[in-house]
Specification:
By secondary structure, the protein is α/β, with parallel strands linked by helices. Helix content is 42%, strand content 24%.
Amino acid sequence: MNDYQKQFVDFMVASDVLKFGEFTLKSGRKSPFFMNAGAYTTGSQLHRLGVFYAQAIEDGFGLDFDVVFGPAYKGIPLSVVTAMAVSELFGKEVRYCSNRKEAKDHGDAGILLGSELRDGDRVVIVEDVTTSGKSIDETYPILKAAADVEVVGLMVSLNRQEVGKGGSVSALQEVSERYGFPASAIVAMGEVVDYLKGKGFLDDAQVAAIAAYYDQYGARQ
């Protein structure tokens, strides 16, 4: 992992965003770890989060894009702080855009908030985590209906590396295969486990529980 990725793992743990124990997920799976991006609540946390996203986007996709798009609701602040961080780190001005769950019919009307989308815009989508690809299924048609845009890629904070709806590859890989753009993460869970195990943060029982979980639910890519 790069230094910023190691720092991001430490940041998730220190922010109480990434926890280890026994958790029941919405899917009904019993997971030995849990990520809650809603725990990023302070100005300094959100600033650092945007910086990590900007670094990962530059590292994975480059800087040839115009708009950061965040699907409602958690993607809204992500798109804002990422656009700010791209300007701060790289001196590049990009716009932010998000969707509303319901269209507004007065004032700043429509389904989108932030910047309007224009034909030819190159867009990076940011999300906290992708478990099923449902939000992309909902928002990709909105993007394409708004303008003739090109999606450069999807960036999430953590790749859980679990099988998606198809039961074979990860949810991120399913999104990439379905829509034809790359889908990446700041870090993958395998990298997180190796790093925290090396630091002595995870004990043998926790490592074994995670390994057993991936024996059952791990994706082949």
